[in-house]
Amino acid sequence: MGCTWLKLYTSTKLRDGDDISVSLSTDDLKAVSKYLNGLLPHATFGHTKGREQWFMASPLMLLREEGEG
Question: Residue 22 belongs to what domain range?
Answer without folding.
Answer: 7-62
